[in-house]
Amino acid sequence: MEKEDKITKTSEISIKVGTNENNVPVRMKWSAQDGNIENAEASSMFLSVWDPKEKNTMKIDLWTKELSIEEMKQFFHQTLVTMADTFERATGEKNISEDLRDYCYHFAEKMDILPED
Predict the structure, then answer these.
(1) Which residues contact 39 (CB under 8 A, 6 or more apart)?
(2) Cβ neighbours for 14, distance < 8 A, ≥ 6 positions apart
(3) Residue span of the structural domain in which 44 resides
(4) For residue 29, what are the CA distances in angstroms to 37, 40, 47, 70?
(5) NCBIfam families under this entry (predicted)?
C-alpha cells in the first residue's frame, strides 16, 4: 500500500465570471495565491478536473464575447502545445508528445497563425 502524503499547505485559485442578462461571459478575472496574481483579466479559459471516482473529466470552457477569432485560434494552439508538454512531463511518453507537437504545428499552419520568420 502506498503511503499517503500529508498536506502541509493549501493554496487557492479563484475565477470570477461576470455575465450579461443572457448569461454570456463579458468579464473574467482570476487570482492565484501562490502566483501572486490578484484579479487578473482573462478573455478565455479551459478548466479540466479529473474525477477519480467517476474516471471522467469535468470541464468548463468559457470565453468573453470580445475575444476575437484570431485570439481564440492562438489560445487553442498554445493550450494544445502546453498539453503536449504537460503530458510528456507527467507520463514520460516522449514519442506521442512529439506527435501531438507535430499536430500543433499543423494546426497553427492551417489556422494561419505561424509566427513570421
Answers:
(1) 16, 29, 30, 31
(2) 30, 31
(3) 11-66
(4) 10, 5, 14, 21
(5) GldC
Q: Tell me if 28 is assigned to some domain.
A: yes
78 shares its domain with 56: no
Q: How far apart are the first and last CA of the chain?
A: 54
User: What whole-number distance in Å separates Cα of residue 54 and Cα of residue 85?
Assistant: 26
Do 61 and 20 share a structural domain? yes
For residues 45 and 61, what is the distance between their CA atoms, to the nearest angstrom? 6
Together in a domain, 72 and 55: no
